[in-house]
Amino acid sequence: MGGSLLDQISKLPLAERIELVEDVWDSIAAEAEELPVPESHREELARRREAHREQPGRTRSWEEVRRRLWSEE
After folding, report:
1. Which of 1, 6, 2, 3 is nearest to 24 (CA)?
2. Which residues have a Cβ under 8 Å from the Cβ of 58 and sit 6 or more positions away?
3. Which residue from 4, 18, 31, 37 lies 20 to 30 Å from 43 (Cα-Cα)?
4. Distances in whole angstroms, Cα of residue 61 to Cα of each of 8, 10, 48, 65, 66
5. What is the residue-level pLDDT of the chain in tens, covering all 73 positions?
6. pTM higher than 0.85 for the full model?
7. How does DSSP assign 29-73, residue by residue?
8. How is the chain split into domains, by residue range?
């Protein structure tokens, strides 16, 4: 097979490319626990947890956030 992998993928029908991306993403997700989490991410999560503990009323549910995002279109 000639050409780069991307060239070969680009020749696939759109539906097959989407399926390929889904398959690749699933394979990444299956190994996600093996990825190291940067210390800066851990620190940010700890900061956000503490902020939530101090002021739990400032949070919004995912449903509310999604509703607000869609209503602003």
Report:
1. 6
2. 51, 52
3. 31
4. 43, 39, 15, 6, 9
5. 468 999 999 999 999 999 999 999 999 999 988 989 999 999 999 999 999 999 988 888 999 999 999 996 5
6. no
7. HHTGGGSPPPHHHHHHHHHHHHHHHH-GGG---HHHHHHHHHHT-
8. 5-34, 39-71
